[in-house]
Write a structure and sequence with these properties.
By secondary structure, the protein is an all-alpha fold. Helix content is about 65%, strand content about 0%. It is globular, with a radius of gyration of 19 Å.
């Protein structure tokens, strides 16, 4: 009996510590606990119901200009959610939705989309894809990874929709202000329009 009471007290203490931790710390704690991770993913599927209108029920977007969230690193997703909530990323629709999410829902949604499989699509132009592989290896792989699967700091680009990739890369290159990232602006500065099309064709077909 004493052992049971002790375990309950310890569990309650751990829960209290976890509640006071930062969201990235809580995310890592959930990832390290298989049962808690599964419960969070299940809850994230339910919490993401309003995201499905644009990003799809499994994180595969329904429209060409909306990114896939499937397979993204959960740490990266959590940070982007934070940025939309704080206004660092500008999108009136997204900012309004994010602000109503509780911290726990943010964690759950990030873990859910990270758990969903990516479905790459055939490149529109195979020849462009081959050229894009060379451009990607030269300018992009150092941050986004050799397989373009990203990390906590950089987004997964593999399997993204072709139009979304072209538009986003072009916005960085042209420094439009819609997407602000100094490193991306520098990295994309030498790209010509054909280079952007080639990279997008390469990335969209990656698993």
């Amino acid at each position: 009996m004493r052992n049971i009471v002790g375990a309950i007290v310890l569990s309650a203490a751990c829960s209290a510590v976890l509640a006071q931790a930062s969201l990235p710390e809580r995310l890592k704690a959930l990832q390290a606990d298989p049962a808690a991770h599964k419960a969070a993913v299940d809850a994230g599927k339910k919490a993401s119901f309003f995201c499905a209108n644009c990003h799809g029920e499994e994180g595969l977007s329904k429209t060409p200009d909306v990114p896939n969230l499937a397979g993204q690193n959960p740490g990266y997703l959590l940070e982007q959610i934070r940025k939309f909530g704080s206004g660092e990323r500008k999108d009136a629709f997204m900012q309004g939705l994010i602000k109503v999410l509780k911290d726990e829902e943010r964690l759950q949604i990030a873990l859910y989309y990270a758990s969903t499989p990516v479905r790459p699509t055939p490149p529109a132009n195979a020849a462009q894809s081959a050229k894009g592989k060379e451009v990607f290896a030269k300018l992009c792989a150092r941050c986004h990874g050799e397989q373009a699967r990203g990390s906590e700091a950089y987004p997964r680009l593999a399997g993204q929709k072709l139009p979304y990739l072209q538009t986003s890369i072009t916005r960085y290159r042209d420094n439009t202000g819609i997407r602000n990232n100094q490193l991306m602006t520098i990295a994309t500065a030498p790209l010509k329009n054909d280079d952007i099309i080639a990279v997008a064709n390469y990335l969209t077909q990656l698993p």
